[in-house]
Amino acid sequence: MTDSNSSNNPPVADIFYDVSDGHVSIANGLSYDPDGDTLTKESSHTLGDGYRLEVLTVFDGELGDTTSAYIATGCGYYYHEAPTADYSYSLTGRTLTVDARNSRGAYLLWEFGDGSQSSDVVTHHSFAEPGTYEVTLAVYGYPNRKVEYFNVTVP
Length: 155
Description:
Elements (H helix, E strand, L loop, with lengths): L15 E5 L2 E5 L12 E9 L2 E9 L4 E11 L2 E2 L9 E5 L2 E5 L7 E5 L5 E2 L3 E5 L4 E11 L2 E11 L1
C-alpha cells in the first residue's frame, strides 16, 4: 500500500556515449531515480550532417525525464566524452551517504572498503564496525575510467 502523503520525485535522465571501433555506443549513463524506483528507459537517435542526435527518456511508472545529446562527427569518426567522477558524501553515525549525480559516465561502481559495493548513483551504506575505510568511486566510459578515493572514519 502506498502512503498517500508520500511524494514521488521525478527520475533524472543522463546520456553517456562512447566510441569503439568507429561505432557509437549509447549508454543510459548515470540515470537514476531519487526514490530508488525501477526505471524504464527508451532511446532513439537521428543522424544528420556532421552530428548524431540521441534522445533518452526514463520513466519510473508515474513520472519521466528526457534528455538529448548532439554527438559531433568529423570525417566519418565520432568523438567521445571522457568520464568524470564528481561526488559528495556525508556520514551520520555508521551510515555513509554517497552521491555521484555530478559524475559523467556509462556506469559507475562504489567500493566501500569493507568488501561491499554498489552501482547506484546515490546510495547509503552502513558499516558494521568502527574504523577508517577507503571509499572508491570508479566511473567507466570509453576509452578509460576515472577513479576517485576518499577516507571516512566511522565512529
